[in-house]
Write a structure and sequence with these properties.
Layout (H helix, E strand, L loop, with lengths): L1 E3 L14 E3 L6 E3 L5 E6 L6 E4 L6 E3 L11 E7 L3 H10 L10 E3 L32 E5 L3 H9 L9 E2 L2 E2 L2 E5 H4 L2 H20 L6 E4 H21 L6 H10 L6 E7 L8 E6 L15 E8 L2 E8 L17 E5 L5 E4 L7 H9 L3
Antiparallel strand pairs: 1-8, 2-3, 4-5, 4-7, 5-6, 9-12, 10-11, 13-19, 14-17, 14-18, 15-16, 16-17
Helix pairs in contact: 4-5
Length: 358
């Protein structure tokens, strides 16, 4: 599949585009912030293809063949607008620019064979865990540099094997494209939430209310951080999870995220466990490990991310007694979350919190 555009403003979906109207809802799609997909096909909507919804998958309204009608790169859409986009395109209610990039689809023997399917395996050393790229790798800090600066501003002196020049220096190779685009934007967005939450927890400002959108943003950042912690050493999470996450920019349905308050005793704490959840009738599943639990702190907050790899209709249930201390922010955020909580965790309760997922 290839596209071609004339010189000038970069059309939506072509390398270098930054933002464009969604073909579904009409609002702006921001390349470095939103989950999005590229739409191609005929101007009439008689044939449509979409890619970027899932790793290594292309969706087509007619998978069996390509029409004789000329194909174009039609634009982009939010991940959540794919059904609306299809309906509008097929109804002919979308107005296109006079010039659109040509789209060519290759089928049959001329298509190079796909590389071996590895999305069920953890990321490999020396490659970006979010896209498998081995080019232009950069050092991505698991605990971001702004966090080290924030600790210094609060009077902390960072020492130990995991620090360098008074900064936390725990890094993972991530490609420049992921690191300095969507991950950088996510980091900036969440810093604007984490710092006020920490100040409210320390009594330095009034309590705050977190909306559903803000809780989803926090959970997205927490999952990104958990994936980096896993990739740091002995990864167990399938790379398909990470690549889907990079496309959708939200956690998947088989992941749960909680946040709580924490009384910090060190700059950071983290724990990772590979798990084998049993079925409801106490039987093991075919794959092992089939789940993970990652718990970590930042400032005076603690996040816990748990996910399983069984897919389908499998769901996780939380029957722990942490009401008022630990709050689910994905997949079922509260309509409004009041922060800070009246009850928090500390070094004394850390081990019990980690062990509560089993």
């Amino acid at each position: 599949m290839t596209g071609r555009a004339d010189a000038g403003k970069v059309p939506a979906g072509m390398p270098g585009w930054r933002n464009a109207p969604c073909l579904g809802c009409g609002s702006k799609v921001v390349q470095s912030r939103d989950g999005w997909l590229i739409i191609g096909g005929t101007r009439s909507g008689s044939y449509l293809v979409a890619w970027g919804a899932m790793p290594r998958l292309i969706y087509a309204t007619d998978p069996a063949g390509v029409p004789g009608e000329k194909l174009f790169m039609l634009g982009v859409a939010h991940q959540s607008c794919i059904h609306t986009t299809r309906a509008r395109l097929e109804a002919g209610t979308v107005r296109f620019p006079a010039e659109l990039p040509d789209l060519e689809l290759e089928q049959g023997d001329q298509v190079p064979p796909l590389p071996l399917y590895m999305l069920d395996k953890p990321a490999e050393p020396g490659s970006c865990p979010f896209c498998d790229s081995r080019f232009l790798l950069t050092d991505e800090h698991i605990w971001p540099l702004w966090y080290s600066r924030e600790l210094q501003a609060r009077g902390a002196i960072l020492t130990g094997a995991a620090t360098k020049n008074n900064r936390i220096n725990i890094t993972i190779p991530v490609c420049d494209d992921c690191n300095n685009k969507w991950m950088s934007v996510l980091e900036g967005d969440v810093k604007e939430l984490l710092v006020p939450m920490a100040d409210a927890g320390a009594g330095a400002r009034e309590p705050i209310q977190l909306s559903v959108a803000q809780q989803i943003r926090l959970s997205t950042w927490a999952v990104k951080t958990a994936y980096l912690i896993d990739a740091y050493q002995g990864p167990v999470i399938p790379r398909g999870f990470l690549q889907e996450f990079a496309l959708k920019r939200v956690p998947n349905p088989w992941t749960m995220v909680w946040v709580g308050g924490y009384t910090p005793d060190v700059a950071l704490r983290a724990d990772k466990k590979a798990l084998d959840f049993l079925t409801s009738d106490g039987q093991p599943t075919k794959n092992s490990p089939n789940s993970f639990s990652i718990t970590f702190t930042i400032l005076n907050l603690v996040f816990q991310v748990v996910g399983h790899f069984n897919g389908g209709t499998w769901t996780l249930r939380d029957n722990r007694q942490y009401d008022g201390a630990l709050f689910e922010i994905w997949p079922n955020p509260a309509e409004k979350l009041s922060w800070p909580p009246s009850i928090g965790f500390s070094q004394i309760s850390w081990d019990a919190l980690v062990a509560s997922i089993s």
